[in-house]
Amino acid sequence: MAKIVCVLYDDPAAGYPSSYARDGIPSIERYPDGQTAPSPKSIDFTPGTLLGSVSGELGLRDFLEKQGHTLVVISDKEAALDRELPDTDVVISQPFWPAYLTAERIAKAPKLKLAVTAGIGSDHVDLDAAIDAGMTVAEVTYSNSISVAEHVVMMILGLVRNYLPSYQVVVDGGWNIADCVARSYDLEGMHVGTVAAGRIGTAVLRRLAPFDVKLHYTDRHRLPESVERELGLTFHPSAAGMVPHCDVVTINAPLHPETEGLFGDDLLGSMRRGTYLINTARAKIADRDAIVRALESGQLAGYAGDVWYPQPAPADHPWRTMPHHGMTPHISGSSLSAQTRYAAGTREILESWLSGTPIRDEYLIVDGGRLAGAGAHAYSTAVQATV
User: Is 333 annotated as contributing to ligand binding?
Assistant: First the structure.
């Protein structure tokens, strides 16, 4: 029997009920590119519930305990995780509350065979160490791609239209129209570019096209000519070649050594003065202090994202207080709709692993001592991801 440790965020501090379920949430049978979505119909939870918190347990307890497995659910990613690791077979966590599986932790967990990301993005796992240890690393690819893409579009509009400061004027009892519109523009006609055009990046491009913007992208894998023609895309071989042409840049790339620190002083300095930067990918793709400097100097007109390093971010993190930001805690991919999908996908991965049947190729990041599936597509075989 297996021991599964699930690291999840705490329940609502305000004591809200664990569910804000609607009469029903839309059922998705297939993802946009045709892949079958995991079905929640036979799962032991109600779609629309707060599955990602400690009390929600990703809906896994009954399923696992009926088979004799042990489920340990914790929110402490440090001391409690370290105590549990030596006899743990599986660790599950979310990108929004990642269990950082460093090489040192993996070395102290001789039984650890599977790391599952309930969501998308496995950079909290040292993939080199996982490969060396013969582990499998999997994530619920596709599960919240659209959730994140919607968040990106919301953040772009929020910055460009100066929504958050204008909302605050209302909260503060004011009616300062000039102050509200002094930094407000139309998105129409702007040049918008995405760094990476995978599932999320392409979904962002599709959602922005109706705004009559001029769309740009850069990616290791060029999109089909038919997609470029349909969306009116301009391809650039590199981020450095793309960003000088853009008024808005959105980052939708995985974190690895080739992208870590990419948006530092040099790249930010090459952008048009007054560009907006959106980052829902990973915080370390942007240099923390360079972002602050660019906002303070006016080189960036705004920065919005919901990824931080570390997570949760400390109270004194400079991104909390820098000017013209639209930061959120890491929530873009954790809507109640998305939680339904990644909880169902997590169970599907566990069902496959526990029964000894193959895990879906699109869920795999590392398998059999090598990058596999989605991991082989997202990461260079010569360069592994870093924590």
Answer: yes
**CATH value of 184-323 in 3.40.50.620, 1.10.10.10, 3.40.30.10, 3.40.50.720:** 3.40.50.720
Q: Contact, 213 vs 187, CB < 8 A? A: yes
pLDDT digits (tens, 9 = 90+) for 19-44: 566 666 666 788 777 778 887 766 77
3-state helix vs strand vs coil in the chain, percent to 5: 35, 20, 45
95 is in an annotated binding site: no
Looking only at the bridges linking them, the beta strands covering 136-139 and 364-367 are antiparallel
Mean pLDDT of 317-340: 95
Residue 331 known to bind ligand: yes
CA atoms within 13 A on the CB side of 6: 26
d(CA 78, CA 306): 22
Convert the pLDDT of each residue in 231-252 to its tens digit.
999 999 999 999 999 999 999 9
User: Would residue 279 show up in a list of annotated catalytic residues for this protein?
Assistant: no
CA distances from 34 to 31, 58, 144, 247 (A): 5, 25, 15, 32
Tell whether residue 257 is among the known ligand binding residues: yes
Q: Tell me, what's the pLDDT at 385?
A: 37
Q: In the annotation, is 222 catalytic?
A: no
Q: Average pLDDT of 98-122?
A: 96
User: Helix (H, G, I), strand (E, B), or coil: what is residue 84?
Assistant: helix
CATH H-level, domain 3-143+334-372: superfamily: NAD(P)-binding Rossmann-like Domain (3.40.50.720)
Task: Output the pLDDT for position 383.
Answer: 40
Q: What is the pLDDT of residue 382?
A: 39
Catalytic member of 124, 216, 330, 347: 330
**Residue 206, SS3 per DSSP:** helix
Whether 332 has a binding-site annotation, put simply, is yes
Asked if 48 and 79 touch (Cβ cutoff 8 Å), the reply is no
**Candidate list 144, 299, 339, 384, residue with the active-site label:** 144
Counted residue by residue, the chain has a size of: 387
Determine whether 67 is an active site residue: no
144 is catalytic: yes
- More confidently predicted of 255 and 71: 71
Residue 50's pLDDT band (cuts 50, 70, 90)? confident
Residues of the chain with CATH 3.40.50.720: 3-143+334-372, 184-323
Predicted structure pTM score: 0.90
